[in-house]
Amino acid sequence: MMIHLLDIKTRITCLALDGKILFSGSHDKTIRLWNLNNNQALTYFSGLDHPIQKLLVIPETGYLVSIGTGLLLTWDYPNKKVISKFTKPETFKCIAYLDRALFIGTEENNIHSYTQENNFEDTDNQYQMIDVNQEIDDDYMKKIIEQNQQILQEFQQQQ
What domains can you pick out in the chain, each with its CATH number? Predict the structure, then answer.
């Protein structure tokens, strides 16, 4: 299967999935939604003030999260509206989600976390990079491994 992007002359920077909807983020500051059943474009969001770096769908809510240079937006995409916005004077580069919290890595070697309970708004926790030789608590690592195994099992059951 291939989706051909007719008349789109920008590079795609990221992809995310929510069921049969594929999201593409682009350097031209747009997010496009694609129907995977028929490979057709559904809609797009434009007028953003930053190129889209990464996209992520939050499983519990279906909200779409986009990040760009110092900007995090949480979207209620069926209604085409932004429900939260957070800015930071840093360059956001990657995003992950676990236990109702977003983690955002920056080019400045920081990791920020935002909780879903506060709509991912200004409740920033900042983590500093740790020395790789520093010991990590065994109980904490066991918890992370168990959580990852549970996520993998849930994913496999959905397939």
Answer: 12-133 (2.130.10.10)
